[in-house]
Each structure stands twice: as C-alpha cells, then as structure tokens.
Amino acid sequence: MLEARSLSLARQSRQLFSHISFMLRPGQALLLEGRNGAGKTSMLRILAGLARPDEGDVYWQGEKISNSALFRDDLLYLGHQPAVNLELTPFENLRYLSALHGDNPQSIAEILAAVGLAGYEDVPSGNLSAGQQRRVALSRLWLSNSKLWILDEPLTALDVRAVAGLEKRFADHVANGGMLIVTTHQAAILPQQATIQLRLGEIQQEVES
After folding, report:
1. Residue 64 to residues 14, 60, 82: CA-CA distances in angstroms?
2. Which PROSITE patterns does its entry note (predicted)?
C-alpha cells in the first residue's frame, strides 16, 4: 500500500497543493488531474521519491519511502523524458531491459507491436520521433514486475492502436494486484471501477479510497 500523508508544496511563493492525503491499495489506480501548473508532475516526483514536499511524507508498506529499499525495487517511474538509449534500436533497448527483468512470456517483437513500433525494431532510437521514443520507453511496462507504476502523461503521441494496447496493459496490471498512478487527459483508459481521482488545485484534497 502507498500512503500520502498531508503533502504540501509551494513554488516561488505560490502554493501548488496543501495537506493532500490518500491511500492507494493493491488493485487500485489513481488518476491525478489538474490544470497546467497545478503541480501534477511535482506530485508524481514526490510520490516516486525523486523530490521532497515542503510538508508531509509518503509511505510504502508502512515505511517512509526515503528509508525503504523495498520501495525502490517495487517502483517503475516514467516521467516526461523517455529515458531511452538513443544509440540502440528499440529491439536492443528492450532486449537490454528484458535481461534486467528476467524471463518474459511475450516476445520483444510482440511488445514493440503492442506500442505501435512494428517495422521500427531495427531503427536507431536516435532517428525516431519523440513520440516513437516515448513508445520505446513505455514498452518496459510489458516487462516490469514492479508493483507500483507512476506514469506522467503516458499517452502522449500514441496512436489509437497503441492506446488500446496500453489500456489493456493497465487493466491487467491492476487486476493482478498492481497499483497505478497516472496523469492523463484520457481518463477512460483506466479501469473505471478500480480508479480513484485526485484533482489538484481544488479545496477537497483528501481522497477516500
């Protein structure tokens, strides 16, 4: 379980969010919403342990994430930057990640097809568009056994087929007891009955889950 307790953050004298608390349990997704500049990316980075709030703490299985080696093992975070080795092809990037994650029932070609990269397997990633590089990064979701996924606008530049593949992957992850935190303008992609919503910039900032 992931628990946020009274998280607050200000930037340049502007309060982004204040005293936000919620719990995310196995088999749940959290949709993080808010206007541009409301602090969504900052919140994701705090929840991933990459930034500190002005007040409050984040806990994983009852332990502060700053002290938890288990949290680092259980987390998959994908931010705005694709974090792809541009010198490698999509196939080579995924083969490297596959070696890190161990055996996977799907072939690399199947995974790349699921994110809309069929036909681009052997093109150097540096020659791909920004959207295609994003898809290479997203392909690691098919390899990951991490319990908690934190994803910042994962649907950016994806076509309809890739979005459908991602929707199924999200549903499978949550159905298998995984947890998911996402910022996106396409809320319908998340498993509706398992999703709680948190909108930054509004008075009500404590989420019942």
Report:
1. 27, 6, 27
2. ABC_TRANSPORTER_1 (PS00211), ABC_TRANSPORTER_2 (PS50893)
Q: How far apart are CA 202 and CA 188, in angstroms?
A: 22
Instruction: State the Cα angle at 102 between 96 and 108, rounded to 5°.
Output: 55
pTM: 0.89
Q: How far apart are the C-alpha atoms of 143 and 93, rounded to whole Å?
A: 12
**Residue 46 to residue 57: CA distance in whole angstroms:** 9
Cα separation, 142 vs 149, in Å, equals 12
Model confidence over 138-186: pLDDT tens digits?
999 998 889 999 999 998 878 888 888 889 999 999 999 999 999 988 8
Distances in Å between the Cα of 204 and the Cα atoms of 31, 94, 172 are 15, 41, 30
* CA 141/CA 131 separation, integer angstroms: 16
> 130-138 and 90-101 helices cross at what angle (nearest 10)?
20
